[in-house]
């Protein structure tokens, strides 16, 4: 395989999973790009990975860094830390920041595909793969104010950023873009809303993003039927709080956003027979 032309800073955020069992890391191990890229494994688990798991990762990747934060730092804080430390510095050599969580599965030619696209379209500020979960295209997606909807059909190539969104995992963000607009995540968004916050800001600065003709399989928490009710309530509350921050920007938007949140929360309460879904609204 020919050496890749571009250098990628790859961030994988994990929680309460053994390094050897992380789907994303296993997929990355099949990608041969080590001569150019650096992998950062950010572990939000309460306990640090043991020596056996660290040793396992050392056999898989040449250039990696393992960071443990038992305080379970928010995604916005983690992302800003990475941008500040590795990208927004004079001697940064990375061309693209690639974001992943722990639940993505893809083939070994992922970075070869990215490299080939960039080589012919050097002006791309954001590249997105097609993310599928439980048979649905969950990213990119359509987003009009607070209401998101999945794509029914796959689109590839240049796509208008207006009325569009995407999940964090799989984003390939140009470091040139991050530097040019001095982008930072709003750290009031903890684990939900960071992806929409990024896309809202991106839309203000760029008319298009590029969608690869490449699919990544992803486990999405909302499709996890075995998730306990306490975890589901936590995710729900965090998500609804983020939606309020993102879209309650004026009187009219606030009215429709809060109306949507109440109806959605009421629906969840009926589905799961738990009144706590509407406790905050």
- Calculate the mean pLDDT score and round it: 88
Sequence stretches where pLDDT stays below 50 over 5 or more residues: none
Strand content: 15-25%
**Secondary structural class:** alpha/beta
Q: Main sheet?
A: 12 strands, mixed
Overall shape: globular
Describe the structure concisely:
The protein is α/β, with parallel strands linked by helices. Helices cover 36% and strands 24% of the residues.
Characterise this structure.
There is one protein chain. This protein has 281 residues and is an alpha/beta fold. It contains eight helices and twelve strands. The chain has helices at 23-29, 51-60, 75-87, 110-120, 175-180, 194-205, 229-247, 251-272, and strands at residues 8-14, 38-43, 64-68, 96-100, 104-105, 126-133, 136-144, 147-151, 157-160, 164-165, 172-174, 208-218. Strands 1, 2, 3, 4, 5, 6, 7, 8, 9, 10, 11 and 12 form a twelve-stranded mixed β-sheet that branches. A hairpin with a 2-residue loop joins strand 7 and strand 8 (147-151). Helix 7 (229-247) runs antiparallel to helix 8. It is globular, with a radius of gyration of 19 Å.
Question: Key terms for this structure?
Answer:
281 residues, alpha/beta, 12-stranded mixed sheet, 8 helices, 12 strands
Write the layout of secondary structure elements.
Layout: E1 8-14, H1 23-29, E2 38-43, H2 51-60, E3 64-68, H3 75-87, E4 96-100, E5 104-105, H4 110-120, E6 126-133, E7 136-144, E8 147-151, E9 157-160, E10 164-165, E11 172-174, H5 175-180, H6 194-205, E12 208-218, H7 229-247, H8 251-272
Parallel strand pairs: 1-2, 1-4, 2-3, 6-12
Antiparallel strand pairs: 4-11, 5-12, 6-7, 6-11, 7-8, 7-10, 9-12
Helix pairs in contact: 7-8
């Amino acid at each position: 395989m020919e050496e890749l032309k571009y250098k990628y800073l790859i961030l994988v955020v994990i929680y309460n999973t053994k390094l050897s069992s992380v789907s994303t890391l296993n997929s990355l191990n099949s990608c041969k790009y080590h001569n150019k890229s650096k992998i950062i494994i950010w572990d939000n688990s309460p306990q640090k990975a043991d020596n056996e798991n660290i040793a396992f990762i050392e056999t898989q990747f040449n250039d990696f860094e393992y960071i443990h934060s038992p305080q379970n730092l928010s995604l916005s804080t983690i992302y800003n830390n990475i941008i500040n430390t590795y990208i927004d510095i004079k001697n940064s050599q990375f061309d693209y920041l690639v974001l992943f969580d722990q639940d993505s599965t893809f083939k070994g030619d992922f970075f070869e595909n990215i490299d080939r696209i960039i080589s012919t379209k050097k002006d791309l500020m954001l590249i997105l793969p097609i993310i599928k979960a439980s048979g649905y295209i969950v990213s990119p997606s359509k987003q009009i104010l607070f209401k998101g909807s999945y794509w029914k059909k796959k689109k590839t190539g240049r796509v208008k950023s207006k009325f569009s969104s995407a999940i964090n995992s799989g984003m390939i963000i140009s470091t040139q873009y991050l530097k040019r607009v001095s982008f930072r995540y709003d750290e009031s968004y903890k684990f939900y809303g960071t992806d929409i916050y990024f896309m809202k800001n991106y839309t203000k600065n760029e008319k298009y993003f590029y969608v690869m003709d490449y699919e990544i399989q992803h486990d999405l928490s909302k499709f996890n039927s075995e998730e306990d009710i306490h975890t589901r309530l936590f995710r729900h509350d965090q998500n609804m709080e983020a939606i309020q921050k993102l879209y309650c920007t004026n009187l009219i938007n606030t009215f429709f956003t809060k109306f949507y949140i109440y109806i959605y929360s009421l629906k969840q309460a009926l589905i799961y027979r738990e009144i706590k879904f509407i406790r905050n609204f």
